[in-house]
Amino acid sequence: MAKIKERVNKFFFPPDDSPRWLVILPYAVLGFFTVLLMIGGAYGWEYTNSSPFCGESCHTMPPEYAAYQVSPHAEVSCVECHIGETFIGNQIWRKAGDVKHIIALAFTTYEYPIYARNMRPSSFSCEQCHSPSKFSDDSLREIEHFADDENNTPSSTYLVLKTGGGSEREGLGRGIHWHIENDVYFYAEDAREQSIPYIRTVDEDGIVDEYIDVEADFDATSVDETKLGKMDCITCHNRISHRIYTPSVSMDAVLTRNVVDRDIPEIHKMGVEVLSDDYATQEEGLAGITSLTEYYEENYADYYANNEEKIDTAIKEIQKIYNNSVFIEQKVDWESHASNMGHTDSPGCFRCHDGKHLNDEAEAVRLECNLCHSLPVVVGPNDFLANINMNRGIEPESHLNPNWISLHNQAFDQTCASCHTTEDIGGTSNTSFCSNSACHGSVIDYTGFDAPALRELISDQLPPPMPTPTMAPVPEPAAGPPTYAANIEPAFASCTACHNEAVSSAGLDLSSYAALIAGSDNGEVILPGEGKNSLLVEVQSGLHFATMTSQQLDLLIEWIDAGALND
Prior knowledge:
Layout: H1 2-12, H2 20-48, H3 51-56, H4 62-69, H5 78-84, H6 88-96, H7 99-107, E1 139-146, E2 154-161, H8 178-181, E3 183-187, E4 198-202, E5 208-213, E6 228-230, H9 233-236, H10 247-256, H11 267-276, H12 282-290, H13 292-299, H14 301-306, H15 308-325, E7 357-358, E8 377-379, H16 404-407, H17 437-440, H18 452-458, H19 484-491, H20 513-518, H21 535-541, H22 550-561
Antiparallel strand pairs: 1-2, 2-8, 3-4, 3-6, 4-5, 5-7
Helix pairs in contact: 10-11, 12-15, 19-22
């Protein structure tokens, strides 16, 4: 040992009479190893920032890594969201803060399933690529479904997603992304933010509005300000890179892409069943999916004999879904981590927009089906057109009530037909506006339409029932100058559904000449001798729920110009 120490000392501190190269050599060696260490450190740092390191080095991460690889952010490295793009010194400091995870892993003090905590604010992650002030365009979406029948009958749901957003100072600031362009705060009762009894909004003038779940025992005066969260991208897009889809949605996806042949009888139904079964181990789950071979051999022997390869391919695809969706050791599947996007498989939007978060004026956080998207339109394989309803104009006063969606199933009458088709009202036949299977055919688990406390509070907001007006037969238009009896009164036949003696919308009754001349809450609607200046003509010439034909409108103007006589 002494000799080794002596030689090392001589190498780094050669005698004074040593050749120059021998003096330079130790510095060259030190420099070489220093550069080597720096290069190795750089490669090591880069590797620890890579997604494979995050996803494969820790046995707790397979669920997150599998979902990430098929997510919209598969080309975005993990550290860009979880650490953030910043100066390397800040990154080192942030990584040092995660040493607690290494300690938890070493001493097995963690619990499954693993949940992310203390995420970076979206302004340091999402908004580095996505600027909320620039969002403004809406988008058309088609969602394909397959029925649980022998033919896997396909259907499509079309809707326009009102992404909106954009800066209000640019005349935008609307739609879904209104939430992150405005100040919205919330109080969550749980760490996963699935139960939100309290919401606070602050408008540009600093006016505060508070909404409280009427079924929650929550005192807004005692809210802890430090526990209020502010809505940002991650409030809704919490699983955008790690979402695990339900068996039904996963089967819809592989059938839509045709990687599983949709001609295989009952394949959607059977795929959902084997994916949804409880298995003790991952291997048992894969074996359970393989049992589909036996099902088709027994129940569809002829088809199996001629299409064995198709069924084998389907089984492999379903096993792939299972391997990317179910992680028994980590206790992770489609139910373990709720996605806050949408409102079908978890509360999502309905954490706040459930109809039972009311303010002091008993007004709900709005919930209309056309608030964030158009009304869904369901079409089957034999439908060649999908007619999407997009409201562009005025709405009846009843529809402006923030609680309208909770009231409308008790407030429909013949006046609905002025704007909507009403065949099979409340049904699921998709033969009219009021028989939309996407609305009435869906079990909406997370709304509070029928919450007893809500029904009690809004019962007095129900509009009075509209009596069915008695209408005289409409005669053929008479020849010659128009008269009230022959031309004008018959033209009001559809109008009197809303404007009649019992219920006169806007104070206007069109069921008699005297009531017509009396006018409305806005004053006279007929100015004898001034047809085009009469309010009734102005309204009928613009957007209205039930408008006259151009011929009827011309006759109305001519009749008013002639003095609007009761003849």
